[in-house]
Amino acid sequence: MSNISDKEQSRKKPRIKKTLEQQLASAQMRLNRLQHKSKKEAKQIETRQKIILGAEVAKALDCDVFTVDKELVLGILLEIPHLHPDDKKRFKKNGLLFLASMKGRKT
Fold first, then answer.
1. Is residue 107 assigned to a domain?
2. Which positions are tagged coiled coil (predicted)?
3. Does any domain span residue 9?
4. E strands present in the chain
């Protein structure tokens, strides 16, 4: 029986122990890969949200994304900091109602 185990051991590739530096470098590479993947996924989520926002703006203006009057929309948005708090509440309520009325919208 010892012959069989000797044969099995000789067939297996010898395990070379990694030095601490090699283990650290390997762990660092895995960490870098995971961080890159995480950043990539976060960017994809952000991009998706921007696309959805653009589509919702176009829907609110009852036009297509390519015909949105960007200057007008941006001009209106620049006025938001100067609005009275009551006006902000009213506009937000209207916006919530509009979003709730959109068919097929995911929250």
1. no
2. 17-44
3. no
4. none
Pairwise CA distance, residues 36 & 30, whole Å: 10
Per-residue pLDDT tens for 23-78?
Answer: 999 999 999 999 999 999 999 999 999 999 999 999 999 999 999 999 999 999 99
In a domain, residue 71? The reply is yes
- Rounded distance, CA 76 to CA 83, Å? 11
Threshold 0.70, pTM exceeds:
no
- The two structure tokens encoding residue 31: 């960490």
Parent domain of 58: 20-101
Q: How far apart are the first and last CA of the chain?
A: 66
Q: How far apart are CA 71 and CA 58, in angstroms?
A: 13
Cβ–Cβ under 8 Å, residues 56 and 99:
yes
- Inter-residue contact 52 to 65 (CB < 8 Å): no
Concatenated DSSP letters of 19-45: PHHHHHHHHHHHHHHHHHHHHHHHHHH
In a domain, 6, yes or no: no
